[in-house]
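Researcher: Quick test of sequence recovery. Tokens follow.
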């Protein structure tokens, strides 16, 4: 269960740089790319009227709405503006924005928060001698999902999904993100199976250089619900350096999607 100080430092840089405290993982890892549901699903997007940031705030998951998770404002963790998240390739910016809980498309109407899994309380009833390695690992595991909502006029939401999909293809060889005075090197971008629950969706993973301590894989999901786009990026410090990506909890995606119907 040991983590080198270098790995912990690299993990911290990855979090602050991308303004994501943890790594998103798709619950299914097969290749599949984006999912467009055809002209029927595109019609609502063309007719969409953008929601205000205040309206989006009411649609974000709130504390008590999802069992086994704590919900908190992302103001202290997430960047407040896309202008502070820079990429060396313009086509890659929607990917970085989605990972940071920001709108991946052209809109100013966006909000975000963090949804953190409650660690298992089973270990609390055990004596020190009874604790297993898994109990200790879970105690230090912090699984956090950054959830972002953004809203668009007309077909803006569909264009946001397209921008992410195009970015996956254009940035497959990697790109660099600069934010909050830190730089993070993404070495690879891969398309993942698109999640269900929206009118359109896309999913991708990125391999991130961990400051000389190898690479870590982060997964992101992006879904369109009419004229609103939801993004999910999950990270788990306990999995840093293990070669595994933290999975985006399906419970979080499903609960948020239910509020957007």
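Model:
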């Amino acid at each position: 269960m040991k983590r080198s100080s270098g790995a912990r430092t690299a993990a911290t840089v990855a979090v602050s740089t991308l303004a994501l405290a943890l790594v998103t993982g798709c619950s299914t890892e097969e290749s599949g790319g984006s999912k467009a549901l055809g002209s029927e699903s595109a019609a609502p997007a063309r007719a969409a009227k953008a929601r205000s940031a205040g309206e989006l705030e009411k649609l974000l998951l709130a504390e008590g709405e999802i069992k086994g998770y704590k919900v908190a404002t992302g103001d202290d963790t997430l960047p407040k503006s896309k202008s502070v998240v820079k990429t060396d390739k313009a086509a890659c910016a929607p990917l970085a924005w989605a990972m940071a809980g920001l709108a991946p498309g052209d809109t100013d109407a966006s909000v975000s928060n963090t949804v953190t899994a409650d660690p298992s309380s089973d270990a609390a009833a055990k004596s020190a001698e009874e604790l297993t390695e898994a109990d200790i690992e879970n105690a230090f595991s912090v699984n956090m999902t950054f959830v972002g909502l953004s809203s668009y006029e007309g077909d803006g939401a569909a264009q946001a999904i397209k921008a992410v999909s195009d970015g996956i293809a254009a940035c497959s060889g990697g790109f660099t993100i600069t934010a909050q005075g830190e730089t993070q090197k993404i070495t690879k971008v891969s398309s993942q199976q698109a999640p269900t629950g929206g009118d359109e969706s896309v999913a991708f993973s990125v391999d991130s250089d961990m400051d000389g301590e190898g690479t870590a894989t982060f997964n992101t999901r992006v879904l369109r619900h009419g004229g609103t786009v939801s993004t999910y990026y999950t990270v788990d410090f306990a999995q840093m350096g293990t070669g595994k990506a933290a999975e985006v909890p399906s419970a979080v995606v499903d609960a948020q999607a239910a509020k957007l119907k």
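The first strand starts at residue 35 and ends at 36.
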